[in-house]
Write a structure and sequence with these properties.
- The chain is an alpha+beta fold and 646 residues long.
- It has four domains: 190 residues, Heat Shock Protein 90 (2-Layer Sandwich); 141 residues, Ribosomal Protein S5, domain 2 (2-Layer Sandwich); 73 residues, no CATH class; 188 residues, MutL, C-terminal domain, dimerisation subdomain (formyl-coa transferase, domain 3, 2-Layer Sandwich).
- Helix content is 31%, strand content 24%.
- It is built from 19 helices and 28 strands.
- The chain has an eight-stranded mixed beta sheet with strand order 5-4-3-6-2-1-7-8, with helices on one face. Strands 9-10-13-11-12 form a five-stranded mixed beta sheet.
- Strand 26 and strand 27 form a beta hairpin.
- Helix 5 packs antiparallel against helix 6 and helix 8 packs parallel to helix 9.
- The protein is elongated, with a radius of gyration of 32 Å.
- The termini are far apart.
- It holds the Pfam family MutL_C.
- One of its GO terms (cellular component) is mismatch repair complex.
- It comes from Clostridium magnum DSM 2767.
C-alpha cells in the first residue's frame, strides 16, 4: 500500500510553475502585472530568442523593501491581499503569490529593487529555486528582474515550445494587450535588440491603438460608452474595412485585466452583425469597469477567465453600447434618419442566451451523401448501366489536355465501340477520327491510363437562379453549385502546382504595400518560405512593412491585401507545428476566391466545360470547405413528390 507523502518545496514549485508558467509569454505577463501593480509609469521589456534565453523587465514603480526581497520568492507570499475576504474586492492584477516562486524554480533569476526611502537597493540571485546570493546593490527606484535560461531544468517543457519567432510574437501580443489596458504607462519593447512597441503614456487610448495596430485601424474605429449602477463599459469597435477572418484583433479588459470571455464576445459580434452581416469577425477593444464584488477572478491560475454574478445584465449592457454606437455612426455616415435604422430586440430567455453562438460549428462532412453511387464504380471509373450502350467507362481512359478531351482506347474495347460517340461540349465525333488524331499527336502510341472521370458526362439542361447548373444522366437529375464546383477545380489545380513547384505568378502593375502589426509581421517572417513556394513574391519594405510584387496567376484579380491578411490569420491559428502540406492546403483554400460566383450567368458551353473539368479532379463531390458540389434527385424521388407513385 502506498503511503501519503508531503511534497518538498522544490517539487511543489515546479508543479505550480506548470500552471502559471506555460511559456515565456506567461512569464512576461506575470512580471508586467507586478510592475503595473507597483504604480510604475515607465516599463521596458527586453527579450532574446523568444524569451527562452533572456527576459528583462525594468520599471520605475514603488520597488520592494530590502527585508522583503527573499519573502517575494516564497510560495503564496504577496502584498496584494492579507485575508480571504480581500479576494472579493481585488483591485490589483496579481494576488495569488505564485508567480515569482514558480518562475524562479524553472530559470536563473536575478532581481534588483530599491524603494524611494532607502539610498541603495537589494539584489537576489536564484537558480532553479535555490537562492545563490542576497546582497546590496546600486539601482534606481523601482525593480529590475532578469529571467535567463527558462526551463533549463525542465527539458520536457522546452520540447513543447514553439519556434523563437512564434514565442516572440506571443510575448509581443501580451505586451500589446497590457499597453492597451494602461494608456497612462509608457511601454518600450525590444525583441533581439530590435525596437518593437513604443507607447508614450499620454493616457489616451487612441494613441496606444495607433502605436499597436497602425494608422489604418485607428482611422476605422468607432467609440462606444454606456453606464449602469454597477458597471460601466467603453471602448472601440471597427468597421467592415478592418474585420478579419479570425478573432486575433479582439481584446476584452475587465477592471483593466485582460481576459477571454465568450459572453462579451458574443454581445459585440451580435451587435455588429445586426448592421454589417459579413462573414468576418469585427475588431474591438472593450473595457468593462465593474465593482469587484460582482465578479470572481479566482477561477484560473493565469487569471485569464472571470465569472460574473449576472451574465444577462453584462450581455445587455455590452450589446446596447455597441449597437447604439454603430447605429449613430451609420446615421452620421449616410445621413439616414435615426428611426429608419434597424432596432434589434435582444430580449431573450435565459435558455436562448446560454445558447448564444460564439464559435461557428465546423461543417460536418461525414454524413454527406455523395451524388454518385460509389458502388457503380470499377477501379475509380464510372461504368454506364444504360441499356443498349456498349461503351463501358472502364474501357475508355480520358486524358485531360488544356482545351480538349482525348480518349485512349484499348484493343478489347474497340470491338464494342459504335461508329460515333458524343463528347460533352462538342458535336458528334467519329471514333476513327479520334484514333487517327491520337496517332498524329503521339507517334508509336503506348496505351496508358491517365486522369479518370469520377462521374459520367452529364447532359446540361440549364441554369437555375444563375447559381445552380441543372444536368441529367439516365433517370437522375443533378444540381451542381457552380461556385463550389469551380472553387474545388481551382483548389486542386493550385494545390497540384504547389506540390510540383510549377506555379505561374503574375506581376502586379503597382506593388501592394501593407503595414503589418508586429504580431502579423512575425507570422510572415516565420512562414516566408511558404509564401515563396505558393507563388508570392514579397519584399521587406521597412519596419513591419512588406511589399507584394507578384501573386499566383490562379488568383485572377483578388483583393490582395485582404487575402494576405486572411492567410496570415489562418497561419497564426494553426501554430508552427503544422506540416507544410496543411499550410499549403490552407492557402489554396483561401486562394480560390477567383471562382465563379453565385448569380453569374453562364452559357451552355461554359456550364458543360465546368462540369467536364469537375469530372476529372481527384475529389469532385465536395468543395475545399467541405460543402457538397453536387446533389441528386432520382426519378423515383421526383415521382413521389408529384404523387405519381407511393
Amino acid at each position: 500500500m502506498r503511503r501519503i507523502n508531503l511534497l518538498d518545496t522544490e517539487t511543489s514549485n515546479k508543479i505550480a510553475a506548470g500552471e502559471v508558467v506555460e511559456r515565456p509569454a506567461s512569464v512576461v505577463k506575470e512580471l508586467l502585472e507586478n510592475s503595473i501593480d507597483s504604480k510604475a509609469k515607465n516599463i521596458a521589456i527586453e527579450i532574446l530568442e523568444g524569451g527562452q534565453k533572456s527576459i528583462k523587465i525594468i520599471d520605475d514603480g514603488h520597488g520592494i523593501h530590502p527585508d522583503d526581497i527573499e519573502k517575494a520568492f516564497m510560495p503564496h507570499a504577496t502584498s496584494k491581499i492579507s485575508s480571504i475576504d480581500d479576494i472579493y474586492s481585488i483591485d490589483t492584477m496579481g494576488f495569488r503569490g505564485e508567480a515569482l516562486p514558480s518562475i524562479a524554480s524553472v530559470s536563473n533569476t536575478v532581481l534588483r529593487s530599491r524603494v524611494e526611502d532607502i539610498d541603495f537597493g537589494r539584489e537576489i540571485s536564484i537558480s532553479g529555486g535555490v537562492v545563490n546570493s542576497i546582497q546590496d546593490a546600486g539601482c534606481n527606484v523601482g525593480t529590475i528582474i532578469e529571467v535567463n535560461d527558462l526551463f533549463f531544468n525542465v527539458p520536457a517543457r522546452q520540447k513543447f515550445l514553439k519556434t523563437t519567432s512564434r514565442e516572440g510574437s506571443y510575448i509581443s501580443d501580451i505586451v500589446d494587450r497590457l499597453a492597451l489596458a494602461n494608456p497612462d504607462i509608457a511601454f518600450k519593447f525590444s525583441n533581439n535588440n530590435k525596437k518593437g512597441l513604443n507607447t508614450y503614456g499620454t493616457g489616451k487610448l487612441i494613441d496606444v491603438i495607433r502605436s499597436v495596430y497602425g494608422k489604418s485601424i485607428s482611422e476605422n474605429i468607432t467609440s462606444f460608452e454606456k453606464h449602469t449602477d454597477i458597471a460601466s463599459i467603453h471602448g472601440y469597435v471597427g468597421n467592415s474595412e478592418i474585420s478579419r477572418g479570425s478573432r486575433n484583433n479582439q481584446s476584452i479588459f475587465v477592471n483593466k485585466r485582460y481576459i477571454k470571455n465568450k459572453l462579451i464576445t458574443a454581445a459585440v459580434e451580435n451587435a455588429f452583425k445586426s448592421f454589417l452581416t459579413i462573414n468576418k469577425f469585427p475588431f474591438f477593444i472593450v473595457f468593462l469597469d465593474i465593482f469587484p464584488e460582482f465578479i470572481d477572478v479566482n477561477v484560473h491560475p493565469t487569471k485569464s477567465e472571470i465569472k460574473f454574478s449576472d451574465d444577462r445584465q453584462i450581455f445587455k449592457l455590452t450589446f446596447d453600447a455597441v449597437h447604439e454606437a454603430l447605429r449613430n455612426s451609420l446615421k452620421d455616415t449616410f445621413n439616414i434618419p435615426y428611426g429608419e435604422l434597424p432596432n434589434i430586440d435582444i430580449e431573450k430567455s435565459d435558455n436562448e442566451l446560454s445558447k448564444t453562438e460564439i464559435e461557428k460549428e465546423p461543417i460536418k462532412t461525414e454524413n454527406i451523401q455523395l451524388p454518385i453511387d460509389l458502388n457503380t464504380f470499377s477501379e475509380n471509373t464510372y461504368r454506364s448501366e444504360k441499356i443498349g450502350n456498349n461503351i463501358g467507362y472502364d474501357s475508355i481512359f480520358y486524358e485531360k489536355r488544356d482545351d480538349q478531351i482525348q480518349y485512349n482506347l484499348n484493343n478489347d474495347s474497340k470491338k464494342s465501340l459504335p461508329n460515333s460517340i458524343e463528347i460533352a461540349g462538342t458535336s458528334e465525333v467519329k471514333v476513327e477520327d479520334i484514333l487517327r488524331e491520337q496517332q498524329k499527336e503521339v507517334p508509336n502510341t503506348q496505351i496508358r491510363e491517365a486522369n479518370i472521370a469520377k462521374f459520367p458526362p452529364f447532359n446540361v439542361i440549364g441554369q437555375f437562379h444563375s447559381t445552380y447548373i441543372l444536368a441529367q444522366w439516365l433517370d437522375t437529375l443533378y444540381l451542381i453549385d457552380q461556385h463550389a464546383a469551380h472553387e474545388k477545380i481551382l483548389f486542386e489545380k493550385y494545390k497540384k502546382s504547389i506540390i510540383e513547384h510549377n506555379i505561374m505568378s503574375q506581376v502586379l502593375i503597382t506593388p501592394i504595400v501593407i503595414e503589418l502589426t508586429r504580431d502579423e509581421y512575425g507570422i510572415y517572417i516565420e512562414n516566408s518560405e511558404t509564401f515563396i513556394n505558393t507563388g508570392f513574391n514579397i519584399e521587406i519594405f521597412g519596419d513591419n512593412t512588406i511589399s507584394i510584387r507578384e501573386v499566383p496567376f490562379i488568383l485572377g484579380k483578388p483583393n490582395v491585401r485582404d487575402l494576405f491578411i486572411d492567410i496570415l490569420n489562418n497561419l497564426k491559428n494553426m501554430g508552427s507545428g503544422e506540416t507544410w502540406e496543411v499550410k499549403y492546403n490552407t492557402i489554396a483554400k483561401l486562394a480560390c476566391k477567383a471562382a465563379i460566383k453565385a448569380n453569374d450567368n453562364l452559357s451552355n458551353v461554359e456550364m458543360k466545360s465546368l462540369i467536364e473539368d469537375l469530372r476529372f479532379i481527384d475529389d469532385p463531390f465536395t468543395c475545399p470547405h467541405g460543402r457538397p458540389t453536387i446533389i441528386k434527385f432520382t426519378l423515383t424521388e421526383l415521382e413521389k413528390k408529384f404523387k405519381r407513385i407511393q
